[in-house]
Amino acid sequence: MAGSTVGREIERKFLVKSMSWKNDAAGVTYRQGYLSLDPDRAVRVRIAGNQAWLTIKRHFRTPTQGV
């Protein structure tokens, strides 16, 4: 993929000091399923109400994971 730019996923975690935020929060039900059995990629669909998201991720193997 010459000339392409691949995004980098960053996961962040935060410590919550109290549960007071829950008083104003509304719940959303998500339905989720995976569409690929290939171990080198994940194809996921998520549905919430009348919206849907399709996510495609390629898994890169590190030297310790083998080929």
Q: Brief overview, please?
A:
The chain is mainly beta. It has no helices and three strands.
Q: Determine the number of helices (DSSP H or I, runs of at least 4 residues).
A: 0
State the assembly state of the protein chains: single chain
Distance between the termini: 20 Å
The helix fraction, in percent, is: under 10%
Cα-atom radius of gyration: 17 Å
Strand element count? 3
pLDDT < 50 runs, ≥5 residues:
none
Tell me the major beta sheet: 3 strands, antiparallel
Q: What class do helices, strands and sheet pairing give?
A: mainly beta
Strand content: 25-35%
Order of secondary-structure elements: EEE
Biggest sheet: strand arrangement: 1-2-3
Mean of the pLDDT scores?
Answer: 83
General shape:
extended
Task: Please characterize this protein's 3D structure.
- With 67 residues, this protein is an all-beta fold.
- The chain contains no helices and 3 strands.
- The protein has strands spanning 31-34, 41-48, 51-58.
- Strands 1-2-3 form a 3-stranded antiparallel beta sheet, with no helix packed on it.
- Strand 1 and strand 2 form a beta hairpin.
- It starts with 30 loop residues before the first strand and ends in a 9-residue tail after the last strand.
Throw out a few tags for this protein:
about 0% helix, about 30% strand, mainly beta, about 70 residues, extended, 3-stranded antiparallel sheet, single chain
